[in-house]
Design brief:
The chain is built from 16 helices and no strands. With about 325 residues, the chain is mainly α. Helix 4 runs antiparallel to helix 5, helix 6 packs antiparallel against helix 15 and helix 10 runs antiparallel to helix 12.
Amino acid sequence: MASEEHYLSPVADLTYRNYDGPLGSVKARWLAIALYQLKRSIKNRFLWVMAVGSGWYYFMMMIIFFFLEQVVGQGGEAGQRQFKEFLARINWRDQFLLGFSYSQLIYFILAWMLGAGAIANDNRSNALLVYLSKPCSKFDYVFGKWMGVFMPLFGLQMLATIFFWLYGGLSFNSYGFMSQAGVVILQMIPVHLMSAALLASVVIGISSLFNQGRVAGSTFAGVYLITNFFTQFVVMTILSQLRDGGSRLANVKPGLFTMYYCSLDGIQIGLAKILLGTDGSPAFGINSRLPNIPIPSTFLMVAAWLVICLIGIGIAWKKVQAVEVV
């Protein structure tokens, strides 16, 4: 039983020193923190709206397929033959790469919603004093917060990918979908894993620097957009050199192709190309002035991904300090 002096004290003791209830296992204390954050996140309806929106490219492809199927259905056997020839030209693996690439902005918004206030709000409310005064180590707290962003982010990213894969398998299996993209769903798992890990590490690291979730979110947005603007500058430079060189890729400086991947988006897209083993193809089959950027160096992409993840987690590790409540 708690002592009588505890209740008479003018200062509330929020620690577990006077706790006399049942005790559970302490092997996965981080899991309690991660699940608590997960439960709070999944109640946000806008988060689910954005998760559905992240599959906008897949949904556009499905609408195009639907209308084409309706149109060719009125053309008899000739129309069916044209539709079959059209599907034969579809590179399904590239469609998954395009769907992932065009969802980068929404993935960033999801990470922002999930993680910007994860540690910053605890800093504001001095909740760290409570967390770290309980039988909870700094590892439990930092890893729990990281997993609280990583797990829902990975799950939400996979939703649209799994849906499109099931749609393709059920609708176009007779047109060779499964033979071409049957294993793609397995390859997309590490693609989304590395994407969620990268964004979770960056947003958790930034969140630990502030005591206001909005300020942390603004800083995260600034980091994302600045690197994204750099990529757009590289794209314009590549287009300029293609125009001056008669649209020949050989006239583009090789270093520009590597610089194209020097952003949070670029690293994720570069790793996705490596894991899927494709340079990609134009969206909706429409030729673009920007050629397919070649697959980057595996070593450079993995090293960049690892360094950024470690920096983000390292910042959070350094900023979260254990406090002894006396």
